[in-house]
Amino acid sequence: MSDHGMRISADGVSVLTGADKDMVVTSKLSMLKGSLSGSGVVSVPQNGTPQVVTIAHGLPNIPMVQGFWNDRDGDVFNPGDFYPLPVYIFGFGGTDFAFTLEADATNVTITFIADDFGAGGANIDFKYAYYIFIDKGRL
Questions:
Q1: Can you give the residue range of the structural domain that contains 115?
Q2: Segment 85-101 mean pLDDT
Q3: Which DSSP string corresponds to the chain?
Q4: pLDDT of residue 3
Q5: How many domains, the chain?
């Protein structure tokens, strides 16, 4: 069954005839096989002050990361829904939200900013979850 697998080609390259090196993804080559993950809650003031969550990953490279968030208490958003990171929401209920997710050679950083432009809203508790993808064969 060696003719089974997955291939996604780059623009302008046939997935049927293109070389493996011209594929965006091919199951013939190393793919993401596992992840480190975690979650937490961060209390974010609505005055524009960034709240930064830093996660040390301990990997020898800059990893691919994925993150999600929700409004834990339902103060602004439905607490039953999780949303992907990053996100920028302008003017929702009079508040701007900017949540980012970044990775470097040492850390994964999630930054939460909410700004209600002086309306004096209470802090919002956001729950977050992250996944740091790794190739376990290279550790």
A1: 33-138
A2: 93
A3: -TT---EEEPTTS-TTTS-GGGEEEETTS----EEEEEEEEEEE-TBS--EEEEEE---SS--EEEEEEEETT-SSS-TT--EESSEEEEEETTEEEEEEEEE-SSEEEEEEEEE-TTS-PPPEEEEEEEEEEE-GGG-
A4: 66
A5: 2
